[in-house]
Amino acid sequence: MKNSQATLTMDVGGAQLTVDTQALFRAWMEKHLPGDTTTAPGALTRPPLRYGERYIGAILGDDGHGHHIIRPPYERDKQMTWNAAMEHAARDGAELPDRVESALLHAKREAGEFAEEYHWTREQLAGTESYAWIQSFDYGYQDSGHKDGEFRVVLVRRVAI
């Protein structure tokens, strides 16, 4: 039997068999160890995406619980009031992002992905029912907007970890 870093060669019934060591090890693990052997213990596995969705990232709490953030297809020109945005999200089986998720969407945005304007979050401004938080997708800052104002909408889908 000969061994190099990438392959293993052995005599089998008078013939020489050369195999990739990583492929051999992976096959052995899949046969003898239960569960997913493609990810390291404790590593997050991305959930499957639907057509047009984009994986944004994961948010974990101090207790280790959290969720994946997935952005459904984005309708760039859609502007509406906060209440209409909340209804639109519910109809689409999604939600408006919270402030943390909005900041993550901004940080992970691809060039030209979002209109560089304010987008609604689902969070109301503390102390008033007339305002909610909005996220800027040009400079990344957050501000408050009157719920009767019209801002852009980006939706998220959450998958528990």
Structural write-up:
- The chain is α+β, with helices and mostly antiparallel strands.
- The protein folds into two domains: 2-32, no CATH class; 54-160, Mannose-Binding Protein A, Chain A.
- It has three helices and eleven strands.
- The chain has helices at 21-32, 82-91, 99-107, and strands at residues 2-3, 7-12, 15-20, 54-60, 66-71, 79-80, 118-124, 131-136, 142-146, 151-152, 157-160.
- A three-stranded antiparallel sheet has the order 1-2-3. A three-stranded antiparallel sheet has the order 4-5-11, covered by helices on one side. Strands 7-8-9 form a three-stranded antiparallel sheet.
- A hairpin with a 5-residue loop joins strand 8 (131-136) and strand 9.
- It starts with a strand and ends with a strand.
* Largest β-sheet summary: 3 strands, antiparallel
Say what the CATH topology of the largest domain is: Mannose-Binding Protein A, Chain A
Structural class category: alpha+beta
Helix and strand run: EEEHEEEHHEEEEE
Spatial gap, N to C terminus: 44 Å
The proportion of residues in beta strands is: 25-35%
What is the annotated CATH architecture of the largest domain? Answer: Roll
Number of domains: 2
Strand order of the largest sheet: 1-2-3
- What is the CATH superfamily label of the largest domain? Mannose-Binding Protein A, subunit A
| Number of DSSP helical runs | 3
Q: Could you tell me the mean pLDDT?
A: 86
* Rg computed from alpha carbons, rounded to a whole number of angstroms: 24 Å
Number of strands: 11
